[in-house]
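Retro notes (design track)

What went well: tokenization of the new backbones is finally stable.
What didn't: we kept losing track of which sequence belonged to which structure.
Fix going forward: every design gets posted as structure first, then sequence, in one message. First example under the new rule, 313 residues:
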């Protein structure tokens, strides 16, 4: 019960103030601290002269070390917290920086504003801050699709998943998950340097997001204006996605908004001919980004309601 209430508190604080720039300038952010540790481990252990098997083993050790570095201090703090409402308050306050609702909303809204005004160049600049692909050649529909895909996937990775693991295990659950997600974002890439070393990071992230991704899709479908269409699209198209998890929230969002997502795209100068999600639907535009943001807000409100019900039961 106390973990669920603490996660509601963390969501509420994040929704109200996010992570203020003043705090970031003075303290940085827990994810940047994790990123610095992971980067140091990769530079020290990922020697290209070693065999792929040896690099995979060292990458597994690095992943476990990073997760332990996040989860074990959190476990010690949680054990020291008093019982009752003070413990809930402390857990919620320390979990707050590990929820990304406000940041995600603001970054996607920053893409929608110039796109609505017809300023495609500025929209591409804002999009580059939240996606891994090169947006310089994307047209308006491509920018809108990428923004909605990022919104759907990061609602799962940045909000539902940390809240899910925090509600189950408290502070070590949410801290450990953020380490897992940061490991995947930094090391889980199929490049010559990282494919072997980052293998464990990518696999652990796949497992950690298995339930949260499907839960996010369910929330999108329930919070949408046409839940049957969203459910149908999710069940039909989620498995078409290159990711075992990202397809669930993306397909649910595509069905809820009545647009197509995914499809062919360029990564690192190479065309990736990926299938469409909700093929046959029209491309999104600025209006659909606004609708997607509204859907995300309703979905996260629904998640908070589920947590409150868990706490009461």
């Amino acid at each position: 019960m106390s973990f669920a209430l603490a996660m509601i508190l963390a969501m509420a604080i994040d929704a109200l103030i996010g992570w203020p720039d003043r705090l970031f300038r003075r303290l940085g952010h827990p994810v940047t601290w994790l990123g610095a540790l992971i980067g140091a481990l990769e530079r020290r252990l990922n020697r290209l002269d070693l065999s792929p098997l040896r690099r995979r083993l060292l990458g597994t050790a690095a992943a476990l070390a990073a997760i332990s570095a996040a989860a074990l201090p959190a476990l010690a703090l949680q054990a020291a917290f008093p019982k009752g409402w003070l413990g809930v308050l402390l857990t919620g306050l320390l979990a707050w920086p590990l929820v990304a609702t406000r940041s995600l909303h603001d970054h996607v809204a920053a893409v929608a504003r110039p796109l609505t005004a017809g300023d495609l160049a500025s929209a591409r600049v804002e999009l580059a801050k939240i996606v891994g692909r090169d947006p310089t050649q994307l047209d308006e529909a491509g920018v809108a699709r990428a923004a909605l895909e990022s919104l759907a996937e990061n609602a799962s990775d940045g909000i539902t998943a940390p809240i899910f693991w925090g509600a189950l295990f408290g502070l070590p659950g949410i801290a450990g998950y953020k380490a897992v997600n940061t490991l995947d974002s930094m090391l889980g890439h199929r490049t010559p340097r990282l494919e072997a070393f980052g293998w464990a990071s990518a696999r652990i992230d796949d497992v950690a997001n298995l339930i949260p991704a499907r839960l996010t899709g369910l929330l999108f479908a329930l919070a949408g204006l046409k839940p049957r269409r969203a459910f149908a699209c999710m069940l039909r198209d989620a498995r078409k996605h290159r990711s075992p998890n990202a397809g669930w929230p993306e397909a649910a969002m595509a069905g809820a908004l009545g647009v197509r997502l995914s499809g062919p795209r360029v990564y690192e100068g190479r065309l990736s001919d990926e299938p469409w999600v909700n093929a046959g639907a029209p491309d999104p535009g600025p209006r659909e980004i606004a609708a997607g943001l509204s859907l995300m807000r309703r979905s996260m409100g629904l998640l908070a309601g589920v947590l409150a019900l868990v706490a009461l039961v």
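Added context from the reviewer: The beta strands are 261-262, 265-267, 270-272, 276-277.
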